[in-house]
Amino acid sequence: MERKYYVIKWPLSQELMEMEWFDECVLLNNEKAIKDFGSSAYLIPEERLKEFIEGLR
User: Which residues lie below 8 Å from residue 5, measured CB to CB, with a gap of 6+?
Assistant: First the structure.
């Protein structure tokens, strides 16, 4: 099964860096991605993003 990812930009990406699973995330650091999303955007696995959101409730 393929994983689904979401692009998360700064400042939320900064909060996610504190999660123990953050090493599963991928920095978007090519020229087009930086232009489109900024220098601190990451691909976050859908299930991890859902986990993070549930932790906020």
Answer: 26, 43, 44, 45, 46
Where are the alpha helices (H) located in 1-57, listed in sequence order?
Answer: 12-16, 31-37, 46-56
The string over 3-36, giving b where at least 16 C-beta atoms fall within 10 Å of a residue's C-beta and e elsewhere, is eebeebeeeebeebeeeeeeeebeebeeeeeeee
**CB neighbours (10 Å) of residue 55?**
8
The predicted-structure confidence for 6-54, as pLDDT tens digits, reads as follows 999 999 999 999 999 999 999 999 999 999 999 999 999 999 999 999 9
Q: How far apart are CA 42 and CA 3, in angstroms?
A: 15
